[in-house]
Each structure stands twice: as structure tokens, then as C-alpha cells.
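Reopening this one. Same input as before:
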Amino acid sequence: MRSWSAPEVPALPVTGPEVSLHDTATGGRVTITPKDGPARLYVCGITPYDATHLGHAATYVGFDLLNRAWRSAGHEVRYVQNVTDVDDPLLERAAKVKVDWVELAERETELFRQDMQALRVLPPDHYAGAVESIPLVVEMIQALEAAGAVYSVDGDLYQSATADPAFGEESGYDRETMLRLFGERGGDPDRAGKRDPLDPVVWLAERPGEPSWPSPFGPGRPGWHVECAAIAREHLGAAFEVQGGGSDLVFPHHEMCAGHAQVVEPGARFAQVYSHAGMVGYDGEKMSKSRGNLVFVSALRNSDIDPMAIRLALLRHHFRADWEWTDAELFDAVDELGRWRRAVALGAGAPAAPVVTEVLAALADDLDAPRAVAAVTAWVDATLGTDGLADTSDPDAATAVLAVVDAALGVLL
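Same output, byte for byte:
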């Protein structure tokens, strides 16, 4: 599948610190220093049944900071993202609006590309759709069968969750919480015939009126979790550095992904770090299609809002925090962006070296974008002289600040 065009990223004259991230599985910090080869990142992508809302944008901008922080630290990065271009929510939406599901998926995926490009999110090296990855899924299911972990319920194939001895370690949830979340987030804990209510489906047998593909198990389509596990293993190998996504993916999605992969390759932790972005709310609730409280990136762009102001509004919140979007958030960011641009337009300014150091240090510290933004704002305040004393002692300040804001924060001034 085609990704989107990459923005130019300026090279910085200094090297940033090694990146440390909060790991959901352990609850602690992990400093990630790839020893052989690139730093590897898998971020779960969209199910393209609707446009990109600000909750999506916050997640992908958050992990874009990780991509950039690794590059600032001198590492090559291999980034993979999927598109779940066949799944129940997509098929249900297509039927409801009476549009071909392929057409809907292609249209919304293209809109997502445009939104990501406008927000200057670095594109993945491999952008893989579920449909094109069905051969990889089939191979993984065959490996799970060989391990004795797969069984059939009326033609649908399930994996025994407990076939992975580490099941539950990624989320740390108790069984009661797992059962509740599994039912709320696309699972089928009440299906008769399953050996355990928490067992995930890996292959859905053909249903009337739904798309299907041939396989050794009969015609059908892949389950959600096995799709990501197969794509990640194919492009990143075992025990890659970071699996990322929204906090609503902690369970069941990331737990089940790990379970599939760890049965196929026992003893190898699927990802070294599991990192999760917070949820963005609107009107007092998490943004979601079911609540109808979505703010779309494309709608803001079409109303002449500078995408860099949207990105800056997102950066003013830590990527792991839950927070609420308001119009005031956006217009504050519009004003802040204008002040940043006025400061760099002067050319000379307050000393830039401390700003560069602080921005890189902040992002290496669990992607602390608010701290980095505060450092730039402090430089802007000193340069514009908000206290009545403008500082233009560094003749090359603007060049250095422009470069670090672009390279590390992804904001083009």
C-alpha cells in the first residue's frame, strides 16, 4: 500500500540523548538504544471507515515525535504501520451508507494520508493493508496450528489465549477487567463453543454478503489482532523496540498481538516496550464515532486552519495524557504559532543553544513535548522582549531554532 510523501527534515548540528519511554507492561522507564540495525517501531493504524479525528492525530503525532527523537539521537528508524482495510466496523459502515466497502476504505485511507502529510508526520517505511497481508496472516495461523494453539468453532478459527504463558503481562489486567474490555472492544467472550471466553479469533469463515479470500482453512478473512502480529513480524522481526497505539489498544489488541507472536516464537517478547497514547475528549467524552463527538482534521484544514497550529495544539499536551479538545485550545495554538513566526522572522534573537539542548532533552524524556514547547516559547518571549527587554544577542538564533523546531517537533515555521 502506498504511504504519503515525506517532509524534508533538517539535519541538526548536535546529537540528541538516547530516548527513554514509559513501558505499559512493566510500568517503568526503558531507555531504548538499538545496538544492531535500526530502531524499529510499529504503530497500529486506522480502520478506514471514517475521517481522521483529533484522537487519531494525537496518537500519530505522538509517535512521530519518537521517530524524530530517535533520528536526532543518531539512529536509523524502521517504521511500520498497518491499515485494517477489512473488518466489521468498515463493513457495517459501508452497508449503512450504501457504499462499496473497498471504495469507502480507499477514500478514507487517502484522506488519512492527506491529513498526515499536512501535519508533517513522517511516513512509515512499510504501510501495509490487511487485505494485501492475508498471505502473511495465513502463514502465521499455520504456525499457530503447528504449535497446537488453534481450534475451530463452526468453521471460525480461534487461538487459545493461554497458549502463550506470558498472556496478561502486557496489560497487567485481572481476568474480570479483561473480560469486560474484550466485550467492549470487538471481542466475543460470550460465544458458545469457545474453550475460554478470552480466546481471540484468527480466521473468520466466509459469511453471506461479506468479502472472503481462499485459504487452507477455507474461504474467509483474518481476525484483527493476528493481522498486526503478522505484519509486524514480517517487517520488523521478533522483539522489535516499540509497539505503539492509543491506550484503548492495551487490551485486547496489543495483548492478543503479543500472544500470537509469542506462541509462534516462544521466549521472544513481541516488543521490548509497549507505549500508549492518551485519549482526547470533546464535550466531556472520549472522541468516538458511537458518541458522535468527533472533530476531524480535514474539517479544520478545510476551514483555513493552519495544520501547524493543529499540530502545535496537540504538542502542548503530553502524548500519554488524557485531555479534552476545545476551540480555545486551537485558537491559543494559532496565536502561539504566530508569535513563534514573528520571533524567527527577526533573524537574531536570544541565545539558541540552550533551546536546542532543552528541546532534544525533553523529547528524549518520554516524548515530553509540552516541556519542549515551553522551551521554545521562553526563547520567543526573550527574543520579542515581552518584559520590555528584547534579546537579540545571538545573530544566528533564528536559523538554529527553526531547525530544531522542524526536526524535533515537526512544526514548520
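So the earlier flakiness isn't reproducible anymore. For the record, The longest helix spans residues 54-72.
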